[in-house]
Amino acid sequence: MKSITVTEFSRKIRKVLDMVEYRGEEVVLVRNKHNIAKIVPGAPHLTAMEAMADLYRTLPDDAGETWESDSRISNSSEEVRDPWAS
Question: Each residue of 7-32: pLDDT tens digit?
């Protein structure tokens, strides 16, 4: 983790933010010899396919056996409920 002064940060903001974004480094901002902030990388970006890739591991082994037939069943007797209605 790198520590830099707020003055140095303001002069090199683009370089520091590139370090955080592209190299995954954490940076601590120091003012008057006190740590005042910590800049950390954000969560990685995932495509929908990447995010759903491990979904099968959370389901029981037999979950996929009846999925297609279950998804085709329409229960039209149930009314569509408004989730925002009080």
Answer: 999 999 999 999 999 999 999 999 99
Residue pair 8/30 in contact (Cβ under 8 Å)? The answer is no
Domain assignments of the chain as residue spans, ordered by start: 2-39
- pTM for the full predicted model: 0.53
- CATH number for domain 2-39, candidates 3.40.1620, 3.40.50, 1.20.120, 3.30.160: 3.40.1620
Single out the residue of 42, 29, 33, 21 nearest to residue 3, CA to CA.
29
Q: How far apart are CA 82 and CA 78, in angstroms?
A: 12
* Cβ proximity of 38 and 26 under 8 Å: yes
Q: Does 3 score more than 90 pLDDT?
A: yes
